Amino acid sequence: MEKDVLIKVSNLDLHYGDNHVLKDIHLEIVRNNVTALIGPSGCGKSSFLRCINRMNDFIRGAKVTGEIIIEDMNIYSRSTDVISLRRDVGMVFQKPNPFPMSIYDNVAYGPRLHGMKNRTKLDEIVENSIKGAALWDEVKDKLNSSGLGLSGGQQQRLCIARAIATNPDVVLMDEPTSALDPLATAKIEELIRQLKEDYTVVIVTHNMQQAARISDYTAFFLLGDLVEYGQTSKIFTSPKDKRTEDYITGRFG
């Protein structure tokens, strides 16, 4: 069966000044799947993730060449509306970062930013997004309370609700459980498995077991190179490259 590719990356290079961070990356990300990016610290996986919604635009001296096509749009073409791109490609960061406002306003923030003023519709979006982030039962009676009053795991699920409130095609996650305890981590992992029914998820993780548990595809980065990419089951059981095998068996990293 032919793969339904949503994101096609070709000839992608990224420099931060003189530092060559990503080198000639070629990758196809499959729709409604979870793709894990693994590799040691400083190998380029978070930088690659930030290329997908042009977050590197904020980094002084960053220069990207090559192309990333999402659906039929080259996101690095001059005609690209970066604000629309970031609506279609949501992002969840390593540390939960709710805004200092109510739970409701955190989730309504994106839709309001993009012009949604209808209160009934906003109520519906907020409820559906919080349900989609598996948080509704815990917060439905305190939507007007500050998002900062939630536990770390709840805050991260609130950030996921905020990311999906604009109905994106893609949800990027940069080590979303690294600041959480094992129980909260398990909840987020279960949520990620559910999210792929509606979204294409790309996650950076340092945790090899997590990549094996939740992802359909895995990309292994090393020193700015994409060493190997394929179905997670194959990468973890019969990798083609010895460097991949050495990394996932813990010989380095």
Strand order of the largest sheet: 6-7-8-3-9-10
Number of strands: 10
As a percent range, the share of strand residues is 25-35%
Low-confidence stretches: none
CATH class: Alpha Beta
Describe it for me?
By secondary structure, the protein is an alpha/beta fold. The protein has one domain (5-248): P-loop containing nucleotide triphosphate hydrolases (Rossmann fold, 3-Layer(aba) Sandwich), CATH 3.40.50. The protein has ten helices and ten strands. It has a six-stranded mixed sheet with strand order 6-7-8-3-9-10, with helices on both faces. It has a four-stranded antiparallel sheet with strand order 2-1-4-5, with helices on one face. Helix 3 packs parallel to helix 6, helix 4 crosses helix 6 and helix 6 packs parallel to helix 7 (182-195). The longest helix is centred in the middle third of the chain and has 14 residues, at 119-132. The chain is globular, with a radius of gyration of 18 Å. 42% of the residues are buried.
